[in-house]
Amino acid sequence: MNLPILDVAIGICFIYLLLGLICTTVNEMISGWLKTRAKFLEQGIGRLLGNDALKRALYDHPLIRTLAAKDGARLPSYIPAERFVTALTDVLTGPGKSPSDLAALKQGLAAAGNEQLNAAVTALLDRPGMDAAAARARLEKWFDDGMERVTGWYKRNAQRNALILACVITVVLNADTVNIARTLWTSPTVRAAMVEEAKVRSEKARPEEMLPTVEYPNPQDPTASVPVNVPKQALTDKEQALLGQVTGWTDDQLPQGGSFFGWLWRTLRSHLLGWILTAIAVSLGAPFWFDTLSRFINIRNAGRVPEKGSQTPPPAPAASGVS
Amino acid sequence: MRKATLAYLLIAILARLATAGTLILKRAWIEQYKDRATIDATFTTDHAHKKPNPPAKDGDMHVAGRAPKEVGLPMVAEVMNAAAQQQQKAVQVIHGNEGSGSFVPVSGAWRLWFEHPATSQTQFQTVPPAANTNPDHSFEIHPITKFAAEDITGSFAMVPGFPGHDPKTAFGSYEKLSVLIHASATAVTLDSAKTGFNYVHFRMHLIGSPVKLKDGGLAAMADVEDDASEGEDMLAAKVRMIFVPGTAPWKAVQGKGDGDEFTVLGIPRVNLNAISAFITAAGSAAVTRKLPYEMIVVAVK
Fold first, then answer.
1. Residue A154 at interface with chain B, using a CB cutoff of 8 Å
2. How does strand B287-290 pair with strand B293-300?
3. To the nearest whole percent, how much of chain B has pLDDT over 70?
4. Closest approach of chain A CAs to the CA of B191, in angstroms?
5. Which of A28, A160, A214, A290 to mutate to test the interface with B (most CBs of B within 10 A)?
6. Rounded-to-integer distance, Cα B289 and Cα B179, Å
C-alpha cells in the first residue's frame, strides 16, 4: 500500500520515536543526578516523624546509613519497614535498652518532646495486650502507609518531569508537528527518506533492544540476576540528519534585532499548536511510538511479498483466545 | 494541510489500540514471590465458567475471584485441562464455592502478565467482587495445583488438540516488550503495554542445572528453540524456566542439566527476580526496561 498520507503518518511517528528516545535518555540522566527518590523518601520520613533532629538521628543510625548507595552519600533511596522500625525504636529507647522494650520506648517518646510523634505512636500502641511483636507490626504498617504517600508524590513528579522534558526538547529542537507534517506532505524526497529510515528502525533497532535488561551470569544460579546496562546510542547519524531536516531553527526564525516580544508573539502564533501536539506525543514515550510505527509499517507492507529474512513478529493480539 | 491533519488523527486512533496498564505492587510482596514458583492463597470464587473451554481452544476453566490477604488484586485462577476426568471433582468444588463468599485454600503458579490489564490497579486496595469470569486483571493463579482439598497437579499435561501459539511469533513478541518501573520505598509501579501469547510450544535447551526455589519449585536457565524446526535456530537466549513442585515437568527435569533438551508447553509471566534487581540498581530513577519474563513450564512431551 503506497499512499502519501500513510507515509506522512509513518514520518510523524518516526520523528516522535526519535524525540522519545532523546527524552528517555535525558530523563534517566537527570533522575540519576538529582537523586529524586532519596529526597522524596527523606521528605516523607520528615513528615512522619515531625522533627528534624529525630530524622537526622535516624539517618545517622548504622542500620539506615548502610543503605546509602555509597560511602558519603547520606540518603538511601529505599528503607525497608523493619529496618526503619528497628532504627527508630533504637534511637528512641536509647543506649543500653532493647529496641523491643515498650516501657523504654514510651519513656523515650516522652523525653523526645515531639508531640506529633508521641501522639501518633501512643495511638498505635496504647491498646490492651500490646506486646513487642504486635507493636512492631503496627509501627511497620504505620511506616508503610506513610510511604504510600511518598509513592504518590514520586509518581506525580515523574509524570510531570516527563511532560516538562518533552516540552523543553520540543521547543529547543523546534519540533512543530504541523510543520513536520507540512514538510513531509510537500516534499516527496524527505518523505521517502523518512519512510526508508523508519523501516530500518522498525526492523533492526527496536527501542527495547537498547533497553537495559538483566542477565544471569551464572547459568547454575537462576536466582542471581544482574542488570545489564547496554550502551545507549539514542540516534544513528542518519536519524539525526533526518531529524534535522524537519526540526530545528533557521536563521530567519531567530530574533533579528527587532522587538523580542514581537518575535515571541510571531513565533508562538506560528508554532504553539504544533509544539503542544509534539510535546504531548513525545511524553507518551519511545516504546509507545515504536509500536505505533510498527503498525503503520505493517499496513504499508500489506499486500507486498515479504522480503526474505524480514520476519518482524506482529504486535500482541488484542485477545489471544486463551486465558 | 487538511490531509496532514487527517494523518495525525489516524495516528491518534491507532495509538489508542496500544492501551497500557498500570499495576502498583507492594515491594515486600515482590521480594516474597520473586523466587517462588507458586502462591498459596485464601480465595473466594465470584464467577466460574459453566463449562471449561474446549481443548482445541486451550482447555482452561476460568475462575474469577478474590484473595485479599495474599494477592489483593482483581484476579482469575485457571484450571488446566479442566475438561479431563481427573479434574472433574475440583471443577465441582469450584462451582460449589462460586458466589458463596466463603474462602478456601487455593495453590498454583502465580502469574503476572498484562494480558487483560485495567488502566490502573493497586495491590491490597479493596477488590470488589468480579462481575464476570474475565474481569480486567493482571494477576492469575495459572495453572491451579490445588483447590480446597482437591489436588490437580496432574493437570499439568499437554492439552490434546490444542496447537498453542507459534513460538517464533510468541517469543518475538515477548522480546519486544518494555516496562516503565517506578520504585518507592514500599511500592513498585509497573506500566506496560498489553501483552499476549499465553500458551506456547517450544524446545527448551537447558544451559544449567535446575535450582530449588523457596517453595520447592525449580528454576533453570535455558535457550528457546522452535520445536517444529529440525535446526537449532534460537528464538530467545537465557530465559528462566519455572517448574511447579510435584508436576510432570518438575519431575522430568530432576537431575538434568546443561545440554538436555525438552519439548514443552509454557506460559509467560513477569520475572519478579529481575524486577527486584532493576529496582535495587535504579535507586532514585524511574526507568524504562525490557520487560523481563520467564516461562512457567506446564507440560512436557
1. yes
2. unpaired
3. 91
4. 11
5. A214
6. 5
Using CB atoms, which residue from A4, A222, A313 is nearest to B168? A313
Closest to B286 measured CA to CA, from B174, B188, B186, B176: B188
Q: Search chain A and give the residue with CA nearest B196.
A: A316
**Which run of H or E residues covers position A265?**
helix A260-282
For chain A, list residues with pLDDT below 50: 208-209, 230-232, 305-323
- CB contact residues (below 8 A), chain B span 236-295, against chain A: 238, 240, 258, 271, 273-274, 276-292
Q: How far is CA A308 from the centre of its chain?
A: 38
Q: What count of CB pairs under 8 Å joins A to B?
A: 234
B63 grid coordinates:
475462575
> Which set of grid coordinates corresponds to residue A78?
529505599
Residues 6+ apart with CB under 8 A from A323: B58, B60, B62, B76, B78, B115, B116, B140, B142, B198
Q: What is the pTM of this model?
A: 0.58
Q: Cell 542477565 appears where?
A: A215
Q: Where are the domains of chain A?
A: 4-34+158-216+226-301, 36-156
Whether the predicted interface score ipTM is above 0.90: no
The pair phi, psi for residue B117, each rounded to 5°, is -75, 150
Half-sphere exposure of A112 (CA within 13 A, CB side): 28
- Which element (helix H / strand E) includes B191? strand B187-193
Q: pLDDT per residue over A242-261, tens digit each?
A: 998 899 888 888 877 778 88
Name the pairing type of β-strands B187-193 and B150-151. unpaired
Per-residue pLDDT tens digits for A277-298 = 999 999 888 878 888 998 899 8
Establish if A9 touches chain B: CB-CB under 8 angstroms: yes
For chain B, domains (ranges, CATH) are: 24-154 (2.40.50), 167-300 (2.40.50)
Q: What pLDDT does residue B77 have?
A: 97
Q: What is the DSSP string of A100-169?
A: T-HHHHHHHHHHHT-HHHHHHHHHHH-STT--HHHHHHHHHHHHHHHHHHHHHHHHHHHHHHHHHHHHHH
> Which class for B211: exposed (0-12), middle (13-18), buried (19 or more C-beta within 10 A)?
middle
Q: Going by DSSP bridges, is the β-strand pair B234-243/B218-225 parallel, antiparallel, or unpaired? A: antiparallel
Q: Return the SS3 of B35.
A: coil
Residue A229 DSSP SS3? coil
In degrees, rounded to 5, the angle at the alpha carbon of residue B171 between the alpha carbons of residues B63 and B248 is 55
